Fold this protein.
Amino acid sequence: MKEKTLCHAGELFLIEQLQKNFQYNLKSLVAGIGDDAAVIKYGKDYLLFTTDMMLEGVHFDLHYITPYQLGFKLISVNVSDIYAMGGTPMYALLNIALRKKTETSFFNMLFKGIKHALSYYKTILIGGDISAVRKDIYLSATIIGSTTKPILRSGAKEGDKIYVTGYLGESACGLEILKKKGMRVKPSNNLLKRHLMPAARNPDKLKGIATSMIDISDGLLIDLTRLCDESKVGARIYEEKIPVSPQMRKTALSLGLSPLNLAMTGGEDYELLFTAPHNKKIKAIYIGDIVKSERVIIDKLGFKKAFEPKGYQHF
Amino acid sequence: MKEKTLCHAGELFLIEQLQKNFQYNLKSLVAGIGDDAAVIKYGKDYLLFTTDMMLEGVHFDLHYITPYQLGFKLISVNVSDIYAMGGTPMYALLNIALRKKTETSFFNMLFKGIKHALSYYKTILIGGDISAVRKDIYLSATIIGSTTKPILRSGAKEGDKIYVTGYLGESACGLEILKKKGMRVKPSNNLLKRHLMPAARNPDKLKGIATSMIDISDGLLIDLTRLCDESKVGARIYEEKIPVSPQMRKTALSLGLSPLNLAMTGGEDYELLFTAPHNKKIKAIYIGDIVKSERVIIDKLGFKKAFEPKGYQHF
């Protein structure tokens, strides 16, 4: 019998395996594998730790993104995970592996983008590692943050309302434009900017209000599934409530793509998806409700269909 | 004029650029870029943060190392940086990027090695990221540690003695055996074990004694240069004091290599290199003295020659 490959096992299965294999019974460990960031009780505060990779040919294509944008994005995607815990980023570590023949101007622009983002998020670079690679460029960042009250994925309760902080599918639509144009373009178009230089959403206004939270990095449906899994609840969302900008709708249609599909399964928007008690006044976009167990989308005519965790999976 | 590449700029120059570019005037930041780990004063303790990569084709070759050994080594090389600050490792984050067609048994053995090492160093896995790659496997770890009194690279004083914790050149000699055999071999031979499954050296006995410390990851001469640079001092080391094991000497000679050269420039031994006041009793191997500014090796006949930071450089 042929052995199973990672591709057949699937990313969600692999992470589940790791969660089972690396379980610890420690009071100080509030959240480990399976949330946006790890949460450690330290003194009277909570420390937050997260790390995310960006690999050439998987997460980015140098035909589309400039080194400056890449540096900025590397920091944003990592800060977004700290924000998704209701945290404040403080320190960053980097791993940067580039080709020997890369020009120093690439290195300089990459770090200019990193520096811009770090200063934007008031985060300081404290260390890292640089290396040569044979072929594909590899980047990762680790961000250390803190919070007085972490917002976990696991806090959603039946009856809570579900919200997002902004338009969805913008980044995925931006990527489609780039693929069509097949080259680097100035991000004058907002959809391109959302893809090339995303900004993470500051959660400060949601502290003490949100019962659970996650950032939308892989797509609404897959990230909502993760939140529901951790909270052991279901969700009912309304198709017509999913926020789609007029610009995205128009662009998607002109590219022959479904705007709603982009909004529900497109990754890298870095909007926050959160839940809050139904009686709270919230300045965000209401898209549905937490229910006991069913996970469904209701269309405009009231028809219900179950949703699957569709979105970006590595394996 | 052709633009400079990273290879021409060199690793030490690139890191120096980053040190200049990311300088912060923060009381809590005790050490940042340029030490084995970053040191942050947090409450009454110090938190330590380090991250190191292992890239296929650069740091390892799957013809020589098994996934189990690779997982173990990934943790050891990172823990070694925490130990080099006089710290205790606490938490780990991982970035693991593998090919889609990799068999799940590879994934399982890699994590078995990681788990073994984490338990050996009493460190717990709290998070990370997994991804697919197009070609070369990429691994990195971030370790968070703590200490009540960090031992920096910058604390060496004129008159201090220089010590190492064990035999040098063992790992480099082990790699030469593997290259010659051209295949995976059981690490029954100690030199192979030192290369394939290195153990980091616990610094507990050196706390309150060592004035400066670094781990030997890239080679004695390059790492001693780093320590001298940060401490703004010179060093005089004695050729005949450099610890070379009988086994390494014999193996190196049989391979037509200079044992002394391996010991001075071979990387990945993960022994600690430290300085201590000359009047302290130290259980380690004395190899020389910190002096004002000259950086020299004295040979058996008393001849002096200047040493260069020879060892592993990525660019």
About this structure: Chain B has a mean pLDDT of 94. Chain B has two domains: 6-147, 153-306. Chain B has nine helices and 13 strands.
